[in-house]
Design goal:
Number of strands: 0
Distance between the termini: 82 Å
Number of helices: 2
Structural class: mainly alpha
Shape: rod-shaped
Largest sheet: none
Strand content: under 5%
Length: about 140
């Protein structure tokens, strides 16, 4: 058998070897450096934001615990006062004694509730201020950058 040769051969295209101009190479290197710098700044900002949110959450959680403990303490005090009042009222001998006991109890309860409200309000304001502080610090830090 005779050697069969293809009738057409693929042309041989050679890509010319050319060097990239120095200006283009510098531009590409500068772009890569800027992208790396922007990524580093973005990563740093994300980490700082995460830290700020963790601090805020921790502060809010501690504050809520403090507020709840104070509210439970007030509730316990009020319930104990009501039981004491009820037992004294049931033990009173005369109507006049019951009226005097009731008016005394009402006055003491009003004073206690006023003090408890004042304490709880102060704690709530402290929680709000303490919780907002990391956020304010983070926002002012980002504004300065």
């Amino acid at each position: 058998m005779a050697d069969i040769k293809p009738k057409t051969a693929m042309p041989n295209f050679k890509i010319p070897v050319t060097e990239m101009p120095e200006m283009v190479r510098e531009f590409a290197e500068k772009s890569v450096a800027q992208a790396k710098d922007a990524y580093a700044k973005l990563k740093s900002a994300a980490e700082e934001t995460t830290d700020m949110l963790e601090d805020t959450y921790t502060t809010a959680t501690k504050g809520a615990t403090e507020f709840n403990l104070k509210a439970l303490e007030a509730l316990r005090s009020n319930v104990n006062s009501a039981f004491d009042y009820t037992s004294k009222l049931l033990a009173s001998k005369t109507f006049a004694e019951a009226v005097e006991l009731s008016s005394t109890h009402m006055r003491k309860q009003f004073e206690a509730l006023s003090a408890q409200t004042k304490d709880l309000t102060a704690i709530a304001q402290k929680i709000t201020t303490d919780t907002a502080e990391p956020i304010k610090a983070g926002v002012s830090k980002f504004k300065m950058q």
